[in-house]
Amino acid sequence: MSNIEQAQIVVIGGCAVGCSVAYHLAKAGLTDVLVVEKEPSVAAATTAQAAGLVGQVRSTVERVKLAMRSVQTFCK
């Protein structure tokens, strides 16, 4: 499916977090997931929030928790 108006779920951004969200939705059985990325290919760039989530030093408690959860998810 490539039509954004008809997709059941649209994920904005095709970097680490966006691709992970799409992957887990598909793994859960959803078949109509569309990833929208402004670059010519997915994972061509990164956002400030997705870069370097391995380090767990962040400016807020919420960001530390996101980083810790990311490490648990990606390092299995």
Short recap of the structure:
With 76 residues, the chain is of the alpha+beta class. It has helices at residues 16-27, 61-74, and strands spanning 9-12, 33-36.
- Parts with pLDDT < 50 across at least 5 consecutive residues: none
The largest beta-sheet arranges its strands as: 1-2
Element pattern in H and E = EHEH
Q: Using the CA coordinates, give the radius of gyration.
A: 14 Å
From the helix content, strand content and strand pairing, which structural class follows? alpha+beta
The average pLDDT score comes to 79
Dominant shape: globular
Number of strands: 2
- The percent range for helix content is 25-40%
The oligomeric state of the chains shown is single chain
Distance between the amino and carboxyl termini: 30 Å
- What is the tally of helical segments? 2
Give the biggest sheet: 2 strands, parallel
Q: How would you describe what is shown here?
A:
- The chain has 76 residues and is of the alpha+beta class.
- It has 2 helices and 2 strands; from the N terminus they run βαβα.
- It has helices at residues 16-27, 61-74, and strands at 9-12, 33-36.
- Helix 1 links the parallel strand 1 and strand 2.
- The longest helix is centred in the last third of the chain and has 14 residues, at 61-74.
- The chain starts with 8 loop residues before the first strand and ends with a helix.
